[in-house]
Amino acid sequence: MEIFDYLEENPNKSYKLLDVGSCYNPFKKFQCFDTLAIDIAPAVEDVVKCDFLDLKVDEKLSISNTKCILELPKCSFNIVIFSLYLEYLPTPKQRLDSCLKAYKLLKTEGLLVIISPDSNHVGANAKIMKSWRTCLAKVGFSRVKYEKLTHLHCMAFRKSYLKEIPLRWVQIYPNLDVYDEMFIPQDFKKLGESSHKSEPYEIEFNKELPLQM
Length: 213
Known about the structure:
5 helices, 213 residues, three-stranded mixed beta sheet, Rossmann fold, 23% helix, globular, seven-stranded mixed beta sheet, single chain
């Protein structure tokens, strides 16, 4: 993705990055990032415990006695990463709430990067991806990059300095065939059908991230 090419060209500048659902803090190796890695169940010591859904966004950093982040200051990050995070949330509302929280945490023109698993061909879940773009445009995000890899959707959204800019895109195309919520394919599983299938991306997705770790 071009954003990473740009960052590599500016190695001395520190970009504040929030990695949500980080697990093992893969971005720590890149010196151009000042990374805060959070996860509800950290796998390594340099990932801080935090329930992002319960996180408050206000004016300060607040940490509990158990070293769990409770609050982060608004407009304090250049980049927020949701890598294989939104799919773990059981409802469309929680996914949108997470994106709203990312919007509050980002500085103006900051980036929300979303990586979502999908082993189907590029058009199989196109309506869902268009729906995400529409929902996030209403929040104030403009999509600046989309790439479909074999097992992943990779998207970058910019926090616009005026919410009216991405909203204008929605108004230009009022008859788009989209959902009004941030669904994932599992939401449409029939009652009683397993919502989880053992697919190749579970083993191979790390090979296909747009930035090699």
